[in-house]
Automatic annotation (TrEMBL):
One of its GO terms (molecular function) is P-type potassium transmembrane transporter activity. The keyword Transmembrane helix applies. The chain crosses the membrane at residues 12-32. InterPro entries: KdpF. One of its GO terms (cellular component) is plasma membrane. Keywords: Membrane, Transmembrane, Transmembrane helix. This is K(+)-transporting ATPase subunit F. It holds the Pfam family Potass_KdpF.
Amino acid sequence: MSTPLEVTVNIGLVAGGMLVVLLLVYLFYALLNAEEF
């Protein structure tokens, strides 16, 4: 059984990882658009 703290930390890490991935994808997409213009 995981403690509530461990569950909260795991959710935080997953959410943080998703935000980082989304940010990288957004920046990559913005760079591609900038090169087109």
